[in-house]
Design brief:
2 helices, mainly beta, 6-stranded antiparallel beta sheet, Thiol Ester Dehydrase, Chain A, globular, about 150 residues, single chain, disordered C terminus
């Protein structure tokens, strides 16, 4: 049975902050919204993220899908230890292309377990053209500092 999603309204582009991830910050990705059941990231469309066809490079879209889906299952309130995860699988569907001003990535977790979670993500161009969607499987990282030993160090 497929879960239907009730996406929250998009955060207006430009109302976002650093992602807490050096690679995403270098790329220019901004974390626009992050709650227990939702993550949203924005990236301004620039010629530097395009391919030879002047379309957004598929790797940039995959980066957004992977990152926002991972963040959607790893929220922790301020003052709580951070939650991290690694990607086990990401299935991506490229649906459209184009140019515009903003790439808006959004994701929600579909199901959570004690060691893995599953999330669904989308990347929109300017909030009105769906460029790609993805489903991902993510494994929580158990840090030694949290008092939990990883099974395979």
């Amino acid at each position: 049975m497929q879960q239907s999603f009730s996406w929250p309204p998009l955060t207006p582009p430009g109302n976002a902050g650093p992602s807490q991830n050096p690679y995403l910050d270098w790329l220019g990705v901004r974390l626009a919204a992050w709650t227990d059941n939702y993550a949203e990231m924005h990236l301004r469309w620039t010629p530097q993220i395009t391919n030879r066809s002047s379309r957004v490079h598929g790797g940039v879209i995959c980066t957004l899908l992977d990152s926002v889906a991972g963040y959607s299952g790893c929220f922790s309130p301020e003052g709580e230890p951070p939650i991290h995860a690694v990607t086990l699988a990401l299935t991506t569907q490229f649906l459209d292309s184009g140019s515009g001003e903003w790439l808006i990535a959004r994701a929600q977790p579909e199901k959570r377990g004690s060691t893995v979670f599953f999330a669904r993500a989308e990347v929109w161009l300017d909030g009105d053209r769906l460029l790609a969607s993805a489903s991902g499987t993510f494994k929580y990282i158990r840090h030694k500092s949290a008092g939990i030993r990883p099974r395979n160090p």
